[in-house]
Specification:
Structural class: alpha/beta
Strand content: 15-25%
Number of helices: 10
Largest sheet: 6 strands, mixed
Distance between the termini: 24 Å
Helix content: 40-55%
Oligomer: single chain
């Protein structure tokens, strides 16, 4: 599932994917992107995987594109590279399981956008988020121009994109980018505890929530209402729903199986 640029481990029902190019602050490589694609393709159909986390080895989450190789490539190579990155981003939204970004240090450029493509962001209090593209005369890629304006509004998004100035975890939380903040030394354990709690929940329902919430960004109210109606009629047939109702009646904690 993993490779030398991506470490993978399964704990309980949580698949942990760790970007592993610490010498370059986990800047993206073709091997890393393909590793993420392969891991997510396997995870989407695995009953053993209910929640996925993405984190970074070393001092930071990810610096995004490798600045050392910029200026040494061709438009065709960039076009193909971003095509592969786009494949990853779309797959992240298609996988009907929660994906959590676990961020420390810098989440810069496409690394920031990789975190935005996740369903939740848990961050260390030392985290810095920066859309650094304009510093080198580029536009944002990796879905940032889709996700960020919808998350914080176009004016604030443009400010972050134009100025390319780092923002800290507290400000990112105030904007609605970050869900929770942890002391750095507690991030890994706190994120795993959070992920395990989700993994013990009704994963089928979570998958439907993710799918419809994402569709709401580009759909009308009528379309979402109908999707809710159709989906709810299906979800009531799941074992998890029956278990939830039975547990409520028996005044006990439900034991969901993701079925």
């Amino acid at each position: 599932m993993g490779n030398e640029h991506l470490l993978a481990s399964l704990e309980g029902h949580v698949l942990s994917l760790k970007l592993n190019r610490p010498e370059s602050l986990n800047s993206f490589s073709p091997q890393m992107i393909q590793g993420l694609i392969n891991a997510l393709e396997e995870a989407r159909s695995s009953e053993d995987v209910r929640v996925i986390t993405i984190s970074g080895a070393g001092r930071s989450f990810s610096a995004g594109g490798d600045v050392k190789t910029m200026g040494e490539t061709t438009p065709g190579v960039i076009y193909d590279h971003i095509g592969k990155l786009n494949q990853l981003i779309k797959l992240m939204k298609e996988v009907e399981k929660p994906i959590i970004a676990v961020v420390h240090g810098f989440a810069a450029g496409a690394g920031f956008n990789l975190a935005l493509a996740c369903d939740l962001i848990l961050a260390a209090n030392d985290s810095k988020f920066v859309l650094s593209f304009s510093q080198v005369g580029l536009i944002s890629d990796g879905g940032g121009l889709f996700f960020l304006p919808r998350l914080i509004g176009t004016h604030r998004a443009k400010e972050l994109l134009f100025n390319a100035e780092p923002i800290d975890a507290a400000y990112a939380h105030s904007l609605g980018i970050v869900n929770r903040i942890y002391p750095l030394e507690e991030l890994e354990a706190g994120a795993m505890q959070y992920a395990q709690r989700l993994a013990n929940g009704p994963i089928k329902a979570y998958g439907m929530i993710k799918k419809i919430a994402d569709q709401s960004l580009v759909s009308s109210l009528d379309e979402i209402l109908e999707q809710e109606r159709i989906t709810q009629a299906m979800v009531v047939t799941t074992e998890d729903h029956q278990e939830g109702v039975q547990a409520f009646k028996e005044k006990r904690k439900p034991v969901f199986k993701g079925k």
